[in-house]
Amino acid sequence: MIEAIIFTAIIGSIVLLLFVMAGKEYSEFIEENKADFQVMFMAPASLKLIDKLKIMEKLSGRRLVSLQQKIAVLYAGKQVQHYTKMFIAQILSVVLLCLLGGGIFALLGGGDKKFLLFAIIFAAIIPYALVKKLEEKTTKRKQNIVFELPEFASKVALLVNAGETVQNAIIRCTTMKADDPNPLYIELNEAVTKLRNGESFGKVMEELSKRCGVQEVSVLTTTILLNYKRGGGELSIALRELSKELWEKRKAISKTRGEEASSKLVFPMVLVFVAVLLIIAYPALRILG
pTM score > 0.70 for this model? Predict the structure, then answer.
């Protein structure tokens, strides 16, 4: 019981002190960079802890760069460094809540040390789990972009072949799916807005490629820019050839997603099988007993 009281008091005091020290220092920073991060109510304390311990500076270069690359892909066009700091703050927030929750449950359980042990184990696993989740989100975003890309390229090729300029073809194809939640069309909508505001076509295409962070989009924009001044015929042929390759990649993504869906069903099926087996076997075992 004493260990649980001391543990909870220490964690609680640290969290309270961090909140007092933070005050309203990070209010504006949190509002500008909150995105879809969780447990934002804990962000001031976690951000203060990051600054006090200089965690951003102490992170090894390779790990930090790897994390920033994932965040750059997921939150394209945003302040990568700020979003990285918010992501680390989210990890610390969950860890602190886990430790504090473990201490409280230990007190409610009459000082049971198992709750403290579980809290420490979960606190150690959480950073890995959140980084893994970030990787999954990044992969899903890339897959969603590649999945829609062949259809978009085919439509642009068709319009260019019909005599439309490539810029107008891109604008028309994007406008047709302006409300599509796919990240490709979100980035294309931003590109179209810039084109309508008079920005140069080449610059807009380069920025689109950077924001998407997908090799296939880079290939598409490079193909468009290389053939932009040569005329519709050559561009249409180049886009059709690229579209064929992209359709194959779309098929591969569909196959991968199908396999993933099948593997996710295995565990529930095993549980159902065990439950049915118990229901059938239990009466027989009672009779034999």
Answer: yes
Q: Scanning the structure block, which residue is given the tokens 């220092």?
A: 25
Q: Which two tokens stand for residue 180?
A: 């599509």
The candidate with the shortest Cα–Cα distance to 70, out of 142, 4, 12, is: 142
CA gap 222, 76 in Å, rounded: 19
- Each as own residue / partner, the long-range contacts of residues 124-130 (CB below 8 Å, 24 or more positions apart, any chain) are 126/91, 126/94, 126/95, 126/98, 127/91, 127/95, 130/87, 130/90, 130/91, 130/94
pLDDT for the residue numbered 105: 79
What local confidence, expressed as pLDDT, does residue 287 receive? 61
Supply 17's token pair: 């002190």
∠ Cα 199 200 206 (to 5°): 105
Question: What's the mean pLDDT in 64-88?
Answer: 80
Q: How many helices and strands (H and E) does the chain possess?
A: 12, 0
pLDDT band at 231 (very low <50, low <70, confident <90, very high): low
Distance, CA of 189 to CA of 183 (rounded, Å)? 10
